[in-house]
Amino acid sequence: MMGDRKIINLEDGWDFMQKGITKLRAILEDDGQEPFTPEEYINLYTTIYNMCTQKPPHDFSQQLYERYREAFNAYIISDVLPALREKQGEYMLKELVKRWDNHKIMVRWLSRFFNYLDRYYIQRHNLAQLKDVGMLCFRDLVYSELKKNVKDAVLALVDKERDGEQIDRALVKNILGIFVEMGMGGMEAYEQDFEAHLLTNTAAFYSRKASVWIDEDSCPDYLVKAEDCLRREKERVGHYLHASSETKLLKEVEKEVLAAYETQLLEKEHSGCAVLLRDDKTEDLARMFRLFKRIPAGLPPVADIFKKHVEKEGVTLVKQAEDAEGAKKEAPKDKAAQGTEQVFVRSIIQLHDKYLHYVMDCFSNDSLFHRALKEAFEVFCNKVVTGNTSAELLALFCNKLLQKGSSEKLSDEEVEMTLEKVVKLLAYISDKDLFGEFYRKQLSRRLLFDRSANDDHERSILTKLKTQCGAQFTSKMEGMVTDLQIAKDNQKEFEKWLDDDETRRPKMEFAVTVLTTGFWPTYQFTELALPEECVGCITTFKEFYDKKLQHRKLTWIYGLGQVTMKGNFASKPIELNINLFQAAILLLFNEQETLKYTEIRERLGLPDEDMARNLHSLSCAKYKLLLKEPENKSINQDDVFTYNEKFTDRMRRIKIPLPQINDKKKVQEDVDKDRRYAIDAAIVRTMKSRKVLPHQQLVLEVVQQLTKMFKPDFKIIKKRIEDLISRDYLERDKDNPNVFKYMA
Questions:
Q1: For the whole model, what pTM was predicted?
Q2: In 3D, which of 675, 690, 682, 701 has the Cα closest to residue 740?
Q3: Pairing mode, strands 573-579 and 594-596
């Protein structure tokens, strides 16, 4: 019972406890003491328990709490500090680790002996727990005195390791663990007493190293060393530094080794970024990207050099194309242009392949480098090359690729890949609508004259263009392809209709292709007094078509007609593949062997322009089916033409082409007209939604809407605004003439 227990006074109780503490100190000092027996442990614990549970004034909880602290202080002052003060450097660090481990053992044992204080007295009075008191004693007496020396010793070891020497990493890790533990749950002690000095030391170390490397090493060699430093510092964190130091430590290395010398490295005369690009040093470029990505604003200078390099290479290709064109002045103009177009576009595709590979592999698909590539290609892809825009050259390249008898012998897969790359290049061209119009013109020729090599490729590129430029861009082209399919079905129906009644069948075979006006390029209608053989064909088809579709009007475009006829010459008959105008001219010579220019014109009703082109092809070009008087290369109104009975050729079938017409001007006119409509639509659309807008804002919004297809001229936008005002779509504000209002 409590009342029967003998009162323990403070000094007697403490004397007993002091013996236990002395034994514990002896155990820690390796004096050959036996460990505590369970009985000794119980007695020591019970003594504290009894002294804390006696009734006042014999409750010695407060005094014991204070003497608990004094026991640690006495041990540290008498045993720990002298042992540490007599050692230096690495020996001091080893002693400190040993003393810290001993101290933690002492805290663990004493806090067990004094456990009753922790459970009641400390909680009631809101005091530091026994474990923390023990730690605080070490911090206040040992750590505060030695932390500077310890920090210096650790940094000396770190420097030794950085210089390539072996060090005791486990020792350093244990020491830095003490710095962390001295924070009592926080990181302040580690950060302020060690980490801050480590970072300063690291910056100084790498500043010295980098200042030597920048003078001695090439850019690639320097970057190899920089990457190696960063790797080693990262490993250092794993070996003994606290994980929280990694980012800060690497940042110091990056600042001193990379950021401080970025400009010098990139611009090194014989090994800088431009030289690495020139020499295709992909591995070094990838390393450069990895390293400069780590520092703030490190990549824009690299991307800028990349952009300038690609731009320079592209401009060189443009110059080479110009020089090649100059060397071909003797060749026919159209052939020279086509040759240049093939070589130039193929070179641009190869250039794009190469540097897109760089962006994806060396520069990790970074958006900054995608933008640099785009801006570089936009510069030279919008230059005029040999008098042709890139839009025209790209369309010509596609035409060569897709038409029959292409000079490039490619497999279907290679054609598909090339088409994919051409469409990618189109993204860099500002006048996409101009490409679209040229492409549509050439597509029409391929479809109408059966020059398309593969229908699947035709549909494939339209799908790609639709994805790249939108459905509106390809709607007419898709309509053209559909028209041809409908025309084939229509021809089958016509053949069936003829089979149903043989009296309907004309004397000659013929096929009609019905086109939808809105889809196809505008073709000029030319009057022609048709040969009698053709009149019956047209009448028959009109009868069939009117029965099928009563409310549609057919306009016959004779200039697109193709005829296969036999020419009976003295040596042998030859099959002639010609157009309808050429056929009409030749059929006149069935009646008369000699005809004047004026007689031919009178009988056929053809304009002089068409007369000259077609007569030239029959009398002045490669195949002279007609003999001309006088004999020269020009067609005049007083010329006389005679059937050349002696004409012969080694082939039994020949195609007589017309002189090429350069329709570039017509295409440009059509595009300009379409642009005016597009600008009008954009202005009205914008004003309808905004109602009132200042001039500058209206222009900017219109440009923004139209930039995907072409770059509108500000002067033209201004003219279109004035035109819309005159047509009462818009009006100027009475108070401010620079503000426009929409008129509903």
A1: 0.78
A2: 690
A3: unpaired
